């Protein structure tokens, strides 16, 4: 992974590592300081001894996303609970705008969204229909149906969204084979002559 020099990066999305259970507070203070922040949340039920309670949790625990010029990051670093920017050494690494846009689209869709293990291999798909039309990701199957997984590569974290089977169109087969061939399980094509 290469990191662009800071002077070449205007306002981009960055991941800020924060202390556990400080995500909402950090996002709120960052917004009050004038930063564009993004804290994707999901709804879940937590069982306590006497009842079930619906709660909101971060999709990416320990991280808050902020869009900023990295040369002006000091006010963000002074927020209680902020640990550091995700990057290489002391150089913050930007996150692709398309990855943040995909997560924002998934969260705003109203569909069931939850954290998902990061997947590096799998079938890439594009959704052709439904509220997520145009969104690309990795198709996975679960006992409850199909989901699309969208990822933030820098953090090695992913989010899954429940989808309808008829929304999905596979990405070009040739591209999938080339991707697999470059991965840990090579694909070889053998021809037999008769």
Number of helical elements: 4
| Level-2 CATH architecture of the largest domain | 2-Layer Sandwich
Question: What is the name of the CATH topology of the largest domain?
Answer: Alpha-Beta Plaits
Strand line-up of the largest beta sheet: 10-14-13-12-11-15
List the helices and strands and how they pair.
Layout: E1 12-18, H1 23-32, E2 36-38, E3 41-47, E4 52-58, E5 63-68, H2 74-77, E6 82-85, E7 87-88, E8 91-92, E9 94-95, H3 97-108, E10 113-116, E11 124-127, E12 136-142, E13 145-152, E14 157-162, E15 168-170, H4 173-182
Antiparallel strand pairs: 1-5, 1-6, 1-9, 2-5, 3-4, 7-8, 10-14, 11-12, 11-15, 12-13, 13-14
Any overview of this molecule?
With 194 residues, the protein is an alpha+beta fold. Helix content is 19%, strand content 37%. It has 2 domains: 6-95, 2-Layer Sandwich (Alpha-Beta Plaits), CATH 3.30.70; 105-182, SH3 type barrels, CATH 2.30.30. It is built from 4 helices and 15 strands. Residues 4-8 and 174-194 have low confidence and may be disordered. It is globular. A 6-stranded antiparallel beta sheet has the order 10-14-13-12-11-15, covered by helices on one side. It starts with 11 loop residues before the first strand and ends in a 12-residue tail after the last helix.
